[in-house]
User: Fold DUF6969 domain-containing protein from Fontimonas thermophila.
Amino acid sequence: MGTALAQWQCRRALAEAAQAAERLLEISTRLAHKGITVPGLLVGGATPAPWIHFPDCDAVDTVRRYRYYYHVHPRRPQGEHGHFHLFRHTGRRERPATHLIGIAVDPYGLPLRVFTTNRWVTDEYLLPAAKVLRYLRRFRMDRPRRLQLVHDWLRALITVFGPTIVEVLRARDARIGAARPTLLEDRRIEILSASRISLTRQIAMIERLIKRRI
Assistant:
């Protein structure tokens, strides 16, 4: 992650990461006091059925052209409750949306890992990491308004784990570049790259970097 951390060498970028971490904790604490998690805002109190998208018909901001949904798999990695898939639409009818990143969380709504999917998984219009990262850095949704806390949580998480997301997307591109041409349609391969994440450790690292700059 050393190369990707270079984006935090800028005082402004590091300050943005610290503010995003505060926002993440603020949202999580606010919901915890109500006995709710971020995924809980989407699925409600019921146990979500596998593959069903939450919210129904996805969360879509047609103005900014971002979309996401949360779902669970019948089989999932240990400790995972479910995961988010984030997309950006190009605005062109002939092109499907681009999958930006996947974010897995535990039953308490804490982030577990970020990952990229193979092209066939979401039938995406594949873009190189550099373009995907530009879309992620601009990620913001204002609709539907009832899910604003979820929108804000996702946006803050993208900022807090920015360096890890950079590495995961670069690893995806490296794997694609070194693979056989049929990789992107190989139904045996769902995940192209992934990295475990810890909110506690990430916040601690941000705090250490800030102290070094004071």
Q: What stands out?
A: The radius of gyration is 17 Å. The CA atoms of residues 60 and 67 lie 4 Å apart. Residues 6-44+51-213 form one domain.
